[in-house]
Please model this.
Amino acid sequence: MCYPSNQADNPNMDATEIAKFEALANRWWDRQGDFKPLHDINPLRINWIDERVELHNKKVVDVGCGGGILTEAMAQRGAQVTGIDMATAPLNVARLHGLESDVEVDYRQLTAEQLATQESGQYDVVTCLEMLEHVPDPGSVIQACSRLLKPSGQVFFATINRNIKSWLMAIVGAEYILQLLPRGTHNHDKFLRPSELHRWQQEAGLRPLEITGMTYNPITGRYKLKPNDVSVNYLMYARKQQKS
Amino acid sequence: MVISSCDIVIVGAGLVGASVALALAGTAQIYGLRIVLLDTGSLDSLPLDSGSIFDGRATALSYGSRNLLHGIGLWHSLATHVEPILRIQVSDQDHFATARLSATEAGTEALGYVVENHLMKNFLLQQLRKLSDWIVLHDYAKVLTVDNASCNSLVSYKRHDEIHQLESQLIIMADGGHSELRRRMGMQSDSQSYQQVALVTTVVLERPHQGLACERFTRAGPLALLPLPDHIDGNTRARCAAVVWTQPQQRATELQQLSDRTLLAQLQQQAGYRLGSLLSLGGRHIYPLNLSLAREQVRQGMVVVGNAAHTLHPIAGQGFNLALRGIFELAQHIYQACEKGQPLGDLKGLNAYQHRMQRDQQRIISFSDRIMRLFSSEQLHLSLLRQAGLLALMHTPFAKKMFIRAAMGMDTPISILPPLPNA
Model:
């Protein structure tokens, strides 16, 4: 893998994590395949976001965009979207799929930290979903997201809680029993507690406004947003504070 | 390019789109809303008494749907075009058990109503033409793009070689189950084929049907005969029934190619003589049966209704009734948004609407799906279950009541919409 030379020597990324997603790239848009859960939750999370920020005509960056499932959906709602990721193959898949869907997204291979040095304070909205649990230093990504935002800009994070239940559900349940996700997709130690995410956001000059959980019912195969159950998957929404 | 604006754009003026416009008419009058209805085809209405049109497709309106239409003052004039279902007989070709349901038992004037689609569409369009102060119809309009947002959604469409841009607060997509437009917008639906086709036609009966509907489980698949209003052409009166016969997909070509005489003989054999002799057949429609449910039904400034949102198996006759409940729920949401002075396209309100509808959709989908699986199967245990079900239905007042309630749409909520301006 090679990265553009102008990038920092030590980008905030984990080579094994990147390799994992490189290998799965061709399956990204198979709605019944390895990324089915992402396709299934997409309408829920995009609606949750759109309801809060109204994406139409907003300048948005999707951090850790992968194959572009959320990224495209935001563009389809009229946002002007940039998608960034460090894995080459998923980005190529995203670009190709974008042509097929006839949506305009600017896909770039760099880290949030790198983009923040180039385009600080230029975005209305930053989304960083299901990504923090795959990087070595989530706090640094959150700092970068904050820097990318215009004053009063809004940011969304989604990740997985770290407790016995999330280990049972997200790893044992989703990867081994129900096989919703490829084995090894997640590493439980990298999951983040809402309190940790909360603290990092505050340190980055972000004011957390709202949190909601997302639950999966294995019988009906349906996902639901549940505001008071953040025990496994959850979404957080914050606003950049004026003075930061 | 012609640029104009209105409050609500409805894409598609079929039964669903036209019903949306009518459900909103009272609200439009009170709050001065302007509604534009776009359709790719002609919107000229034909005279309603044209008995010669014999295109076959009919819709069963549940008693709950009747109540909704009654609530906005539309039922009284529609009632002359519908045929009440007074009795239903459910029977199995090879077995003795027959369940009978009647309006008298249900304590209502009818168990449901049957209306021919082209008559219903004509009727709805005629009503819409009287409301031109609030509702504008644009025929031959092909929608090119939809750009939705909560305050200024933009629809661009082509009409008579001219491009129009129409700005509105809310776009209601009622453009049926196979919309290229929705596909391009990335609105996915979950869909599965039943590997079955429905043969839909009309038969002329030897004697009056007296409001009897027959649902019969034949080896080929379930067959429904629904009473239609008499067709009167000059001095001749034809007594008619609508036929919906579910068959395995492999038979599609054969059904298309059979002569009228052979098909009529097959129908007669399968249907028995509860409705007397079947004399002749109308136009034949054969279409594949799918179950589909849109994953997304609302966005900022946009909502998807009717077949565009869900298509069901026709066996339980619930598709249009479900659509109508959705339409009235949406109209009520719009009415309340107007009352509170909120933007109509606000995603929060639309999400709440969708949430309310989702339950209803799930319930009806599983109801239709269960009945379909039970009655399309030749497997012994299901066949026995079906017998037991019919017997239970016959002998258990409670089971009967529950079934009637579900099939008649008696759980349809009462709407508080303002009536049509001229009602």
